[in-house]
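Entry 14: structure prediction run for Enoyl reductase (ER) domain-containing protein. Input pasted below.
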Amino acid sequence: MAEDAASTDPLVPTHTKAWYYSQHGNADDVLKLDPNWPLPQLKDDQVLIKVIAASLNPIDYKRMNGLYKNYDPHLPKTVPGFDVAGVVVSVGREVTKVKVGDEVYGDINEEGVTNLKALGTLSEYTIAEERLLALKPPNLSFIEAAAIPAAIETAYEGLERAQFSAGKSILVVGGAGGVGHFVIQLAKHVYGASKIAATSSTEKLELLKKLGADWAIDYTKEKIEDLTEKFDVVYDTIGEPDRALKAVKEGGKAVTIVPPGLPPVIFFVLTSKGSILDKLRPYFENGQVKPLLDPNTPVPFSQLIQAISYIETSRATGKVVVYPIPTPQRSEMAEDASSTDSSIPTHTKAWYYSEHGRPADVLKFDPNWPLPQLKDDQVLIKVIAVSLNPVDYKRMHGEFKDTDPHLPVVPGYVVAGIVVKVGGEVRKFSVGDEVYGDINEHGLSNPKILGTLLEYTVAEERLLAHKPSNLSFIEAASIPLALELLETANEGFEHAQFSGGKSILVLGGAGGVGSYAIQLARHVYKASKIAATASTAKLQLLRDLGVDLPIDYTKDNFEDLPQKYDLVYDAVGQGDRAFKAIKEGGKVVTIVPPGHPPAIFFLLTSKGSILEKLRPYFESGQVKPILDPKTPLPFSQLVEAISYLETSRATGKVVLYPISSP
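Run finished. Output tokens:
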């Protein structure tokens, strides 16, 4: 490592995979892939972003063709790309608005065509000033978010410059394009236009109406300058300012985003601002303003040349987004899980062990672990975050070797990530979906060799669920835990036939399972009374989770208390004592072996359907993941993270993020 963007964190690389050009020309002539582009030093007001998706704009190919070379001195090497959606992996010392792990989006070039950056967004990592970014709306995927920044900021700034306001009419020339479709939506939902007209080709007229246009004009049949009706504002997105002026009312204004745009037409070059995205966030979150994606979206990173050539035709409807990012070199490709898509590698970076023992003694890192062939019922996932569970270190120690004969093993049960490929029989998910789940269907019986502590993993469709839109990947990864989290808690209630009006005591209420058992008892099963045990320092957490009676196990023996319960949920391995705290006819559930009868002991069968069933409780905020204060820990610190988990001092869940090379 050297002094660069990752100088204080060995997790973040000094170099990145990137597309670049070293001379001006057409994409197919000048674009090349560099697997080792150097990252510049991170400035105090900047953030380093792991790029998840990047959208294309006409300025990308115009810049590449040399149209702005008088303002754009960056050659011999330039990485194209303005728009980004991704995850923050490092921040400068003056950054206060975003933090590591935040999902962000923005246009990273502040001044539209002047002083453009040499490092754009069509790379594995990029750098941007904090002021140019905004937090990604939780209801938008990375693909959708990447489609927004430059286009909507341009749409918004043009409307502001034209002093557009409620009650005015507008004509949008090129209403089905990247900027035009946002102008229509902003005019309708943000500015309160009295009438919206827009032009497009015949086949896109219905789309204009769906976007909110009152009058869809077929430019192949009608000329805007010949229309009898005139408008307060004409917004030209395609370069017809002279004709636009003829459609303006007396005293009205024409705006164009295509040079030269001579007066009296208002011409401007965008100044990117993250504050615009923040201002418009409510309209994205309530669904009034939506990005329009071209049917070819997403386009794999490996097909960037074809994608740029496509937008040069001006036939795109809405935005073209490149995803997933990055691509391996062609030499890495072979027949495997990615045999039909050259943007997905045949090998992945992974932690593994080839003998049983303590993490510090047996865990090793392999930069080239082979990916298996994708089966018809499976999906390939780009791993974003992974949570740890006690089963991870117990399996590593060899406690389950009678039912787990596999060595070497990539550990990890739980994943939150993005689908990058689907098998032939997969119906619930598509490429680009954000998913989470426990990839081992039967907890201790024949768990998989390929776990989740790697850059890519494979899982059966039935084990996964769509990530709740209001949860980050870090939060989502903390939920679907093999033996210690939500599914275990829920199965325990089902086994014990727990229902509304009953009382419950949770042993270990501040832990991974216990914290969810409390919340499920409160919000899903409507318990009449909830008690839970924890150490002195964690009693307030129990109250915050919804506990009526927090019990300090360092001062009170729960079995000696006068109150008895319909159900005792043992998450720590005190089944014998638990029986002394139940009512006559009550039940004890334990998740810690051996769990002798009459205690109800069970091992989890992972099901994505459980996560789907409980999704409304996450989205409403009634059930929330509890993260240990040390979360997130970088992928490079896996050994330390597992060792910490072994101390049993964690409060809530320990999550590794981001997942990349140590």
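Notes: The mean pLDDT is 87. Will compare against the previous run tomorrow.
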